[in-house]
Amino acid sequence: MLTCRQATQLLSEKQDRQLVLKEQSSLQLHILICRPCRRFGQQMKTLSQLSKGFRKYDN
Hints:
It comes from Acinetobacter kyonggiensis. It contains three helices and no strands. It is mostly helical.
């Protein structure tokens, strides 16, 4: 079982690279039972989407 620190690290790394199957499954299990990490993952996704939106206007 991942700790919250490990889970948030993987959530951050997920933005830059594809996680291997073991990392993905461990992360999914942790997120399933940990509300704060689930919320952090949602925040990371939102920031990523906003960042992509701003790139269109940066040119």
